C-alpha cells in the first residue's frame, strides 16, 4: 500500500464528499475546499513522514551492513518508535489523524457521527485508493504475460510498463 502525491487531492475530495453526503459532518458549501485542504495537509504530512522513516531505515541498513530485504522490518521498528503507522497500520493511523483534523478544523461546522463511523468511511476511501500498487502490478503482469517471469527481459519490461502506467494514471511519486 502506498499513498501517491497525485492521489492526495482526489482522496481528500472523496472523503469530504462521503462524510458530507451521509451527514457525518456538516460543512458549509463555501468551506468544502478548505476542509479538503485540511485533509490534504494530513495526507501530505503522512507522505513526508513516510519518506523520512524509509530514508532512516535505508541509512540504518547501509550503516550497519544489513541486507536490503530487511528494509520493511527496520522501517516498521522506526515507525513504531515514533508512533507512526506504516504497512498494515497505515490506514488506521491515517483515519485517526484525519478524524482529529476534522474535529479541530475551524472549517467544519459540526461532526455528528461517532469516531468509529467516521473511521469506517475514511478507511473505505483509503482502501480504494491505497491498493493502487496491487492493481498496477496485476495490470503490468497482464500486459507482459507473454514473457517468462524471472528473466532479465521480464524485469526490464516490467519496470518499463510500470513506469508508463504510473505516468498515464498520474501516479508519479
What does the main sheet amount to? 2 strands, antiparallel
Number of domains: 2
Q: Record the strand order, biggest sheet.
A: 1-2
CA(first)-CA(last) distance: 13 Å
Structural Rg: 19 Å
Determine the strand fraction and express it as a percent band. under 5%
Helix coverage percent? 55-70%
Coarse morphology: globular
Secondary structure tally: strands: 2
Extract low-pLDDT stretches.
Answer: none
N-to-C SSE string, H for helix and E for strand: HEHHHEHHH
* Broad structural category: mainly alpha
Tell me the number of helical segments per DSSP (H or I, 4 or more residues long).
7
Mean pLDDT: 89
Write the layout of secondary structure elements.
Layout: H1 8-21, E1 25-26, H2 32-64, H3 71-82, H4 90-104, E2 110-111, H5 115-130, H6 132-143, H7 152-168
Antiparallel strand pairs: 1-2
Helix pairs in contact: 1-2, 1-5, 2-3, 2-4, 4-5, 6-7
Report what the structure shows.
With 173 residues, the protein is mainly α. The protein has 2 domains: 5-130; 131-173, no CATH class. 69% of the residues lie in helices and 2% in strands. It has 7 helices and 2 strands. A two-stranded antiparallel ribbon has the order 1-2. Helix 1 (8-21) crosses helix 2, helix 4 (90-104) crosses helix 5 and helix 6 packs across helix 7. It is globular and about 55 Å long. The chain starts with 7 loop residues before the first helix and ends in a 5-residue tail after the last helix. The mean pLDDT is 89.
Amino acid at each position: 500500500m502506498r499513498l501517491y502525491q497525485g492521489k492526495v487531492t482526489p482522496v481528500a475530495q472523496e472523503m469530504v464528499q462521503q462524510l458530507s453526503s451521509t451527514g457525518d459532518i456538516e460543512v458549509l458549501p463555501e468551506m468544502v475546499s478548505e476542509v479538503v485542504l485540511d485533509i490534504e495537509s494530513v495526507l501530505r504530512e503522512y507522505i513526508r513522514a513516510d519518506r523520512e522513516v524509509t530514508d532512516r531505515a535505508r541509512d540504518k541498513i547501509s550503516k550497519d551492513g544489513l541486507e536490503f530485504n530487511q528494509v520493511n522490518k527496520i522501517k516498521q521498528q522506526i515507525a513504531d518508535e515514533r508512533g507512526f503507522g506504516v504497512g498494515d497500520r497505515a490506514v488506521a493511523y491515517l483515519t485517526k489523524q484525519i478524524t482529529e483534523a476534522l474535529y479541530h478544523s475551524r472549517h467544519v461546522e459540526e461532526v455528528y457521527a461517532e469516531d468509529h463511523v467516521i473511521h469506517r468511511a475514511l478507511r473505505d476511501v483509503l482502501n480504494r485508493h491505497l491498493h493502487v500498487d496491487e492493481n498496477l502490478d496485476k495490470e503490468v503482469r497482464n500486459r507482459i504475460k507473454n514473457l517468462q517471469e524471472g528473466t532479465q527481459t521480464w524485469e526490464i519490461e516490467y519496470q518499463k510498463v510500470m513506469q508508463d502506467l504510473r505516468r498515464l494514471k498520474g501516479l508519479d511519486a
